[in-house]
Amino acid sequence: MGKKASKQTKSKIVSAAWKLFYEQGYDNTTVDEIIAESGTSKGSFYHYFDGKDALLGSLAYLFDEMYETLSDTIDPDMHAVDVLCYLNRELFGMIETRIDIDLLTRLYSTQLTTKGEKHLLDRNRVYYKLLRKIVLRGQEKGELRADKSANDIVRLYAMAERALLYDWCLCAGDYSLQAYASEVLPMFLSSLKNS
């Protein structure tokens, strides 16, 4: 199996799993249902994942797929802050409509207690690479502060997103994540603009 086909198979499994987790709940979803929904095989499933629990860490992979799709829709003439707000609005909209909040909470708790790989902090993710590209372009165009490194700005932005998600999970989703972030994030990002 080629690299692209391999990535597509894993993507099908991850997408099917999170769709079923949202519709049926994590505990009510079986591996066999994920395999059927993804149109893959049991061998393929176990090639990528040890079991259903291993899929919890795959949420970052699902987010990265969305970022890859969104990266093709970015207007190169948009201000860097507007691009970051756009990406955040789209991601948080997807989270609200496709990700079960209990699973998101579980993912955050596992990332806090795990000693091994922390998927959300993996700097090789599409997420971090795209953010760095946006920030560097914004700095080159004079839109973003140059007294902070691109890595520092990316880190601050990622922390702000995680804080918004964490608070939303703490509040059990009793407000619109997308609407609140659309109000708060621009205020935070204004401090990163070149004055």
Question: How does this structure look, described?
Answer:
- The protein is mostly helical.
- The chain has two domains: 1-49, Arc Repressor Mutant, subunit A; 56-190, Orthogonal Bundle (Tetracycline Repressor, domain 2).
- Helix content is 68%, strand content 0%.
- It contains nine helices and no strands.
- The chain has helices at residues 3-24, 31-38, 42-48, 59-71, 80-98, 101-113, 126-140, 150-170, 177-190.
- Helix 1 crosses helix 4 (59-71).
- It is globular.
- The protein starts with a helix and ends in a 5-residue tail after the last helix.
Q: Total strand count, please?
A: 0
CATH architecture of the largest domain: Orthogonal Bundle
Q: What class do helices, strands and sheet pairing give? A: mainly alpha
Overall outline: globular
Number of discrete helical segments: 9
- How is the CATH topology of the largest domain named? Tetracycline Repressor, domain 2
Please state roughly what percent of the residues sit in beta strands, choosing from under 5%, 5-15%, 15-25%, 25-35%, 35-45% or over 45%.
under 5%
- What low-confidence regions span 5 or more consecutive residues with pLDDT below 50? none
CATH homologous superfamily designation of the largest domain:
Tetracycline Repressor, domain 2
